[in-house]
Write a structure and sequence with these properties.
Elements: E1 7-17, E2 25-31, E3 37-42, E4 53-59, E5 66-73, E6 76-77, E7 83-86, E8 89-94, H1 102-105, E9 107-111, E10 114-121, E11 126-131, E12 134-144, E13 148-156, H2 161-169, H3 180-199
Antiparallel strand pairs: 1-2, 1-13, 2-3, 3-4, 4-5, 5-6, 5-7, 7-8, 8-9, 9-10, 10-11, 11-12, 12-13
Length: about 200
């Protein structure tokens, strides 16, 4: 297969569910072509027992069960104290919150021999996950009145379910720190995190 000749587009739609006897749920879901349906779920409610941590979970028949857990920020898990697991296997995450150059601020993900670079472009509105020969980009898509904006994705190269799972679960993670503005703001935030960590 020619990697460059393969490309497909997809759309993720935000959703939220409130139920009387269950915790509320929010996230994104979509139809991923021959990969089938996918759903990312998190709880928008602050839960004291989680000790300031939050989790986004991705599921779908063709996808590895994927979980991203991190320090809660803006109602989502963040890249601080973060853990990414696929089918129970941990990925290694590295990023420099204080870096000023874009390529230095990117999140680097190592999983099962693969090396990914996840970056935030266009002032944080476009998210890109890349490994050799593969690129998945997700940006704001069509607007659904009154308040919903879907997310439009493009996958290029011999993309598989692992690539898509990582790119999509990160849509429900606060990655603001990967932008320059977020990097500048993250220094006091990192300090606050340190205080809150020692206070727990």
């Amino acid at each position: 297969m020619e990697p460059s000749s393969e490309s497909f587009e997809f759309e993720l739609t935000p959703y939220s569910v409130s139920a009387k006897k269950e915790l509320p749920k929010a996230g994104v879901k979509g139809d991923m072509g021959h990969f089938g349906s996918v759903t990312v779920e998190r709880c928008p409610l602050y839960r004291p027992l989680e000790k300031g941590m939050d989790t986004a979970r991705l599921s779908g028949p063709a996808f590895p069960e994927t979980s991203f857990r991190g320090k809660r920020r803006s109602g989502k898990p963040s890249l601080f104290k973060a853990e990414l697991t696929l089918e129970g296997r941990h990925a290694e995450l590295r990023f420099n919150a204080r870096a000023l150059r874009k390529e230095d601020r990117a999140l680097r993900i190592a999983y099962e021999g693969r090396e990914y670079v996840y970056s935030s472009e266009e002032w944080g509105s476009v998210k890109v996950l890349e490994r050799e020969g593969v690129r998945v980009s997700i940006e704001p898509g069509r607007h659904v009145p009154p308040t919903t904006t879907c997310r439009a994705g493009t996958a290029t190269g011999p993309v598989d379910a692992v690539d898509l799972a990582i790119a999509i679960v990160l849509e429900e993670v606060d990655t603001e720190v990967l932008t320059l503005g977020g990097a500048v703001l993250s220094s006091p935030f990192a300090l606050m995190q340190r205080f809150s960590d020692t206070a727990e």
